[in-house]
UniProtKB/TrEMBL annotation:
Residues 329-338 have a biased composition (Polar residues). One of its GO terms (molecular function) is transcription cis-regulatory region binding. Residues 339-349 have a biased composition (Basic and acidic residues). This is LacI family DNA-binding transcriptional regulator. Residues 4-58 form the HTH lacI-type domain. Keywords: DNA-binding, Repressor, Transcription, Transcription regulation. InterPro entries: HTH_LacI (IPR000843), LacI/GalR-like_sensor (IPR046335), Lambda_DNA-bd_dom_sf (IPR010982), Peripla_BP_I (IPR028082). Residues 329-349 are annotated as: Disordered. It comes from the Bacteria.
Length: 349
């Protein structure tokens, strides 16, 4: 059977070749109805773009697509650093794209990778399996980062957010905290929702608190400052923040308001971005080996690309490590970490 061409797709969808090409590459000028018609025609014909066809034989593009929710901030820069390190070691190039949040832009970013890359890494804290199945280029090897995708057809690597939140609360309780608040990430973000769920379960189990203070944030420093201002006069002696950047903003606002950290309020963040160890006081946090997460995802994707048969779509979960620094160390002495990247005092639990 002859391989379908873009002309076949255009003929089946009753559009011009140029329109078919724009639809397949996620161009914003294409109407949703036309894009849907072209994609359905491509699926029905098992169409593979020219570069993708070469990739399936002996000549690959040697390019990996990376689609992230954002390209700004220390978390994403660390993810990219890990991916780039592993790609450079293998002589691969990266093609980066930003989802920008909306479902339409996310779909366009995913489809724009069609025929241009050998495999795709996509961070998907807000996407479900149906969305990915409909929008990921058919037959393209992919690994999902940081997404618990039920029924997914692709391998995934995610952080065990609930277990990490539970460990953060347990540490604050060990430090004598009895009224612990949570600064959450944006609602609908899977990471934020799981950390909030882990927090609620932990304070209910350990402190009997079934109605804890939870302030909504958006992972930004500004949200942390607003939360610190709001909590400065509240009866709170511990705070678990859903990420480090909000925790740092929150500590700054609390200090400005005259609250002592950790004497009055102990603070724990999440992620262990590089700046966390340099602020004053140094921030206790749940360490996610962010760069390693990106590196592992790239290696797993390459293994999938090179496999003779598509491997099983398994999910891997990474447990964060508690790093105790000055922001929460009320009891005992904080000892020096052995890790080469942690130059301040702290200990990994």
């Amino acid at each position: 059977m002859a391989t379908a061409t873009i002309r076949d797709v255009a003929r089946t969808a009753a559009v011009s070749v140029a329109s078919a090409s724009r639809a397949l590459n996620g161009h914003p000028s294409v109407t949703p109805a036309t894009r849907t018609r072209v994609l359905e025609a491509a699926d029905a014909l098992n169409y593979v773009p020219h570069l993708g066809a070469r990739s399936l034989s002996t000549r690959r593009s040697n390019t990996i697509g990376v689609v992230l929710p954002d390209l700004f901030g220390e978390f994403f820069s660390e993810i990219i650093r890990g991916i780039d390190y592993a790609a450079h070691r293998r002589g691969l190039q990266l093609l980066l794209s930003n989802m920008h949040g909306s479902a339409q832009e996310t779909a366009a970013a995913l489809r724009a990778m069609r025929g241009r890359v050998d495999g795709l890494l996509v961070m998907s804290p807000q996407l479900d399996a149906d969305f990915l199945a409909h929008n990921l280029p058919k037959g393209l090897p992919a690994v999902v980062l940081n997404g618990r995708i039920e029924g997914a057809r692709h391998a995934s690597i995610a952080i065990d957010n609930q277990a990490g939140a539970h460990a953060a609360v347990a540490h604050l309780v060990e430090q004598g905290c009895k009224r612990i608040a949570h600064l959450s990430g944006p609602k609908g973000n899977a990471d934020a929702d799981e950390r909030a769920r882990g927090f609620r379960d932990a304070v209910a189990t350990m402190l009997g608190d079934h109605d804890p203070i939870v302030l909504a944030g958006d992972f930004s420093e500004e949200a942390g400052i607003a939360a610190g201002t709001a909590l400065a006069g509240r009866d709170v002696d511990g705070i678990f923040s859903a990420n480090d950047i909000m925790a740092i903003g929150c500590m700054a606002a609390l200090t400005e308001a005259g609250r002592m950290i950790p004497g009055d309020i102990a603070m724990v963040g999440f992620d262990d971005v590089p700046i966390a160890r340099y602020v004053t006081p140094a921030l206790s946090t749940m360490r996610v080996h962010i760069a390693q997460l990106g590196e592992s995802a790239l290696e797993r994707l390459v293994a999938t690309i090179e496999a003779d048969e598509p491997p099983e779509a398994t999910a891997e979960f990474l447990m964060p490590e508690l790093v105790v620094r000055a922001s929460s160390a009320r009891t005992g002495t904080v000892t020096s970490t052995k890790g080469p990247h942690d130059r301040t005092q702290g200990r990994v639990v």
